Amino acid sequence: MRARRRFRWRWLAIALICLWSLFPVYWTLNTSLMTNDAAQAIPSHYIPRPFTLSNYAQLFGRQGQANSQNDLWPQFSQSLVNITVECVAATLVTVIIAVFSAYAFARMEFHFKKIVLSTVIATLALPAYATLIPLYHMMSDANLVNTYTGIVLVYVSGFLPLAMWILYSYYSGIPKALEEAAAIDGASPLGTLFSIIIPLALPGIAATAIITFLSAWGQFLFPLVLSSDITTEPLTVFITSLQTQHTVPYTLMNAAGVICIVVPAAMVMFLNRYIIDGILAGSVK
């Protein structure tokens, strides 16, 4: 009897958590399928009435209207390109650096190794936005504001400690006997890394890449400060630019928001196993 009650309460708790988490996503989708007047109606409509795809058509330039207010496709498409380039570049650079640096910390011996590693990991406890102003001044002095390079460098500096920690934990779980056997066969440390360690650590590397990409995709404040125009402005920042001084296009902003969450939602749905396996495998020796 007690087991049944626990089972029911457990599923009730799970249902409440899912409702709490998914309802904002549903409301965003619901609002994006309405007209702006319907979205502001009282009482609210929990089902789109009237149902319309005009907001998505306007974003993708399919409304056939020539006025500048509705010609959003050039800016929207550029923001999609920007966020893709910035996230992919930041992920590649972060993972490449983390693969080598984490291996150095896990396997090599050098002076102050523990101090340096602890310092790097300790940066995860610092509020990211506390570094916003110093980073902006550094990027400004180097003429990297409003450039892909500047945004990618800021992303890498923020995501690298976590990526290193994940791969360090994963490398630490790989038996050293494999590397010792390779060394006996004449393999160099670099050759051992590429031929043995990296193939075995692919789940951890995949998890690191996915987490880094998702973290970069969800950034808002840093690109808002470091991007001054649409040439480098990602989709997350473009959504806020849809608001004008006198109007707030709720439905249009929600439509852009739905498109923005499609990529991370799809990655989590289809690659969730790799994220969990990669993280857990590095914690088990």
Number of strands: 0
- Name the helix and strand elements from N-terminus to C-terminus, one letter apiece: HHHHHHHHHHHHH
Return the CATH topology of the largest domain. MetI-like fold
Discrete helix count = 13
Shape: globular
Structural class: mainly alpha
* pLDDT averaged over residues: 86
Strand percentage lies at under 5%
- Helix percent reads over 70%
Q: What profile does the largest beta sheet have?
A: none
What is the assigned CATH homologous superfamily of the largest domain?
MetI-like
* Count of all domains: 2
Low-confidence stretches: none
Kindly provide the radius of gyration, computed on alpha-carbon positions and rounded to a whole number of angstroms.
24 Å
- First-to-last CA distance: 39 Å
Class of the largest domain, according to the CATH hierarchy? Mainly Alpha
- Which architecture of the largest domain per CATH? Orthogonal Bundle
Overview of the molecule:
This protein has 285 residues and is mainly α. It folds into two domains: 2-59, no CATH class; 73-281, MetI-like fold (Orthogonal Bundle), CATH 1.10.3720. It has 13 helices and no strands. Helix 10 packs antiparallel against helix 13. The two termini are 39 Å apart.
Write the layout of secondary structure elements.
Elements: H1 2-32, H2 36-39, H3 54-59, H4 73-107, H5 113-122, H6 132-141, H7 148-172, H8 176-184, H9 189-200, H10 202-217, H11 221-226, H12 235-241, H13 250-281
Helix pairs in contact: 1-13, 4-7, 4-10, 4-12, 7-10, 8-9, 10-13, 12-13
